[in-house]
Amino acid sequence: MIAAENLVKAFNTRKGNPVRAVDGVSFQVPEGKFFTLLGPSGCGKTTTLRMIAGLERPEDGEIFINGDEVFSSKKDVFVPPYLRDIGMVFQSYAIWPHMTVFENVAFPLTVGKRKCGKKELKERVNKALAIVQMDGLHDRPAPHLSGGQQQRLALARALVCEPKVLLLDEPLSNLDAKLREQMRIELRELQRTLQLTTIYVTHDQAEALSMSSIVAVMSQGRLIQVGKPREIYEDPANQFTADFIGTTNFISGKVVGDPAEDGARLVETPHGHLLCYVPDYMRDGAPVLISIRPQNVLISRDKTAEARNVFHGKLRVAVFLGEYVDCQVEVGNEILRAHMHSRLKIRRGEDVFVHLPRELCTVVPDEKVPESMGV
Amino acid sequence: MATGAQTNRIKWWFQRLRVPDLVDSRLWVMGAAILIVLYLAGVPLGMLFWGSLKVGNPAEASPLTLQNFVKAYSDPRSFTLLANSIIYAAGTCVFSLGLGTTMAFIIERTNTPLKSLFTAMALVPLIIPGVLHTISWILLLSPRIGALNNVLMSAFGLAEAPFDVYGMGGMIWVEGLHLSPLVFVLMAAAFRSMDPALEEAALTSGANHPITFWRVTFRLSLPASAAAMLLMFIRGLESFEVPALIGLRGGVNVFTSRIWLALKEFPPDYGLAAAFAVGLLMISVLGILIYNRVTSRSEQFATVTGKGYRPHIIDLGNWRYLTGLIFVLYFFFLVGLPLFILLWASLNPSYTAPGLDKIDRLTLENYTFVLNMARARTAFKNSLFLSITSGVLVMLVTAIISWITVKTKWPGRTALDVVTFLPITIPGIVLGVSLIWVYLILPIPIYGTVWILLLAYITRYMPYGIRTNSAAMVQIHRELEEASYASGGTWLQTFRRVTLPLLKPGLISGFIYIVVVSFRELSSSILLYSSRSIVLSILIFDLWDSGQFPIVSALSVMMIGILILIVVAARQVGGYFGVRTE
Q1: Quick check: A111 contacting B, CB < 8 Å?
Q2: Residue B114 and residue B198 in contact, taking contact as beta carbons nearer than 8 Å
Q3: Model confidence, pTM
Q4: Under an 8 A CB cutoff, do A96 and B222 touch?
Q5: Cis peptide leading into B267, omega within 30 of 0?
Q6: Backbone angles phi, psi at B275, to 5 degrees
Q7: Looking at this predicted complex, what is its ipTM?
Q8: B459: closest CA among B407, B492, B404, B422?
């Protein structure tokens, strides 16, 4: 288990004023879970990982690995990286070019407290190389490896000590697309089999959604949503998450209340009223954004039986992509993106109706408009 | 009708003239550049080998003989000469490498206080000419007049001077200290370009800092260290100031000082000098060949990726004050003490060791003397002219050469690159000997004028020019030039208006470097100057020989002042043209 409490890390900028790269981050990774820190570059996710590894020293907070306190600002505890029970894979793989494949993997077993005898060393290195399917390449000099092989080698080196905790810093970002997809599956299977508590850092939402048990979305040094992949995708809690993960449409509006039959409330938008499931904590009158993904926007030529949540618009752009038609529909003075079924042959310029099903609309607070100002 | 025919005729001639191959001066310009390079690099070396096989005055006919080589290398003292040269070069190399690497590691990889200040100061010692560094250390460590010796003797009541600069140890100390900033620059770059993840991977694998340093950092920096080591060895071998000023007096002869002696005695033995020069050249060429092998192999070590890494900084805790102190001491010995002693000597009417009781003696009359000295003014004018002219010419010629070697697929372009780079293997004093041979024999009347010095400087610094220009030329995408051709530009127009402006940052930084090094050039000038073509470094060397320490010191302080002015001014101008001063 890994626990981080209120981690803070500041860096000095060139001009001398410190910037908080990580600003009060707390999370827990239960034993054997795959935890992903997801966010755009510069959001502080790598810094957070490096603090867990002990490569950066936080200004404030506490870190526990398997119940041991490895950092505490209050008690002035800082366990250096080489005494923490971790394995780490770096973005650049950090394969030592002056060693062979075998020497790279054997290194952790020849230093520090994990030293072991020659025979055991050989067995364990072979085992680690077999796990990542690299057997037979022992004596290859490390620079003579392909990208995928270097990635596997880095993983073997991280696993050879059988650590309880695996830390991965964008390990797949330097691979080509096809290899990346394959490694995604292999990595996840490996983590499941070995029951490793894993923290994975990435900016790639597909990686995060497909691999993780828990995803934590980071922005500007803070965790802004933590949840299962499905929750993060289907139920973003804020504008940033909705926008960063997948593609979405935002319609701004204001909650006007009038609770409907099933607990949905009305939201007033520039195009008319929409019936949505507004989270309970939002008061009537609160400025909100309604997020709906393009594949959930239904387009039809004729008015449907549905009376609610239907707007009238004009099809402006339709791009045939095979599996669907990527459309831009002008509603009022806004453009909504929608995926239309390929069989529907509506041409650009035609009038259409768009239906935004209430169960597929997510309401998030509009952070740009302070609540007191209203709409 | 007649006028019409005439117009046509003129038109025809006009078109003839514009035929690209003729007037689009591409071939002329390039041909001239190639000829210049071949002449500068090739002729002196050829003449040196030929001269080493002749006896007597160069201008006179003589049968070809191996007599010079027999005389030079059958002498039992020749073995001592070779051994001394190797010991001196190796000692210098080990000392400067150890010192420079330690300082580079402290600055690049630890949290030593005041690092940024030290980084900026690290370039200062590179400006100080070798001859000044050498004489300042004689003033400090000479057994008779050495200020440090005097201080220690009176402080501890010693009967004898504790240090004697006149010996192998003193030579290695002075030269090694002088070369250490260069090692610092090379190794700092190597430490900086190392992917810190390589070290962090060791830390997360359970290795503590000392083990990480030993098994990862140190091993990874081996190729860079090996390269720096060879470079320092060659520099030690080629160095002239320390062997001439310290070694000769202490009875430690090396190749460079022996060559000088052969030409200084009367009558000068040009053939013998050439034979020694050939020997030195061979060792130097061998060193460069090994150096090239080492550096080309180190490129396979894909640690240097050119990425701007944020290096892994080791927290030294309270030990960082110790490393800070080490750095202060280093600068004290490297810059502080030498400058202080020169300044002190320059303010005294006659040389005495520093002391508080003598402060009222201090005077500026040495400076007035220097300012009124006709030779000093001639020397200053010559130095300025030579350094700026050679800077401009080297950068222009090598720009054209680098265009040929980088942008064309001409056969022989690699050979051209090698020839331009060849003079890097020629020690200054060897080049001096070669040029004497060339211009005593060829009917070109430049012997004893500034022009022969100019040729020497251009030849010596061509390799630096080609290196800077090629590196910058590779960065220029072919299409930038092709766009100019497509817009109707000729080759010369394109080169002048597209290529050269794009090269400007490289051109200027190369120019600054060449100006500084030619301003302080000594080892080839010493064989080529006359009273009319004297330069500042020679004047200092000469005055020192005649024992006028206070005057020498005043001149030295002024020379350092001028050099600092040049560098500061060049940085300002360079900044304007977008040069990154590293």
Answers
A1: yes
A2: no
A3: 0.77
A4: no
A5: yes
A6: -65, -40
A7: 0.76
A8: B422
Q: Which helix (H) or strand (E) holds A324?
A: strand A324-331
Residues of B with CB under 8 A from a CB of A: 195, 197-198, 200-208, 211, 215-216, 219-220, 222, 300-303, 312
Burial class (CB in 10 A: 0-12, 13-18, 19+), B508: buried
A157 touches chain B (CB under 8 A): yes
Question: Residue A326's beta-bridge partner residues?
Answer: A319, A339
Which parts of chain B have pLDDT scores under 50? 1-2, 17-23, 300-308, 580-582
* B55, B68 contact by CB (below 8 A): yes
Sign, Cα dihedral of B439, B444, B448, B452: negative
8 Å CB contact of B208 and A161: no
As given in the structure block, the two tokens for residue B15 are 């078109």
User: CA A159 → CA A155, A156, A183, A196, B463, distances in Å?
Assistant: 6, 5, 16, 10, 50
Whether B528 and B434 have beta carbons less than 8 Å apart is answered as: no
Cβ–Cβ < 8 Å for A153, A106:
no
Residue type, A12: N
Please state, in angstroms and rounded to a whole number, the distance separating the CA atoms of residues B141 and B143.
Answer: 6
CA-to-CA distance for A123 and A120, rounded, in angstroms? 5
- The tens-digit pLDDT sequence of chain A (375 residues) is 899 999 999 987 666 678 889 999 999 999 999 999 999 988 999 999 999 999 889 999 999 999 899 999 999 999 988 888 899 999 888 888 888 899 999 999 888 777 788 899 999 999 999 888 888 888 888 878 888 888 899 999 999 988 889 999 999 888 888 888 888 998 999 999 999 999 999 999 989 999 999 999 999 999 999 999 999 998 899 999 999 988 899 999 999 877 666 778 889 898 888 888 888 888 888 899 999 999 999 998 887 777 788 999 999 999 988 888 999 999 988 899 999 888 888 888 899 999 999 889 999 988 765 544 433
Which member of B195, B197, B207 has the closest CB to residue A112?
B207
Q: Which of residues 31-90 of A touch B (CB under 8 A)?
A: 53-55, 80-84, 86-88, 90
Q: Which residues contact B545 (CB under 8 A, 6 or more apart)?
A: none
Q: At what angle do helices B549-576 and B337-346 cross, to 10 degrees?
A: 120
Q: Which helix (H) or strand (E) holds B542?
A: helix B536-545
Q: What is the pLDDT of residue B306?
A: 40
CA distance B109 to chain A (A): 14
Best CA proximity match to A100, nearest among A51, A137, A132, A52 = A137
The angle at the Cα of A127, spanning A126 to A129, to the nearest 5 degrees, equals 65
Q: Give yes or no for a contact between B399 and B500, defined as CB atoms under 8 angstroms apart.
A: yes
Q: Which two tokens stand for residue A80?
A: 């250096």
Q: In angstroms, rounded to a whole number, what is the distance separating the alpha carbons of residues B244 and B17?
A: 58
Are B270 and B437 in contact by the 8 Å Cβ rule? The answer is yes
User: How far is it, in rounded angstroms, from Cα B283 to Cα A357?
Assistant: 85
Nearest residue of A to residue B312, measured between CA atoms: A55
Q: Which residue has the tokens 């010559």?
A: B382
Smallest Cβ distance to B203: which of A55, A154, A167? A55
Facing residue for B301 by CB, picked from A81, A92, A98: A98
Tokens of B46: 């050829």
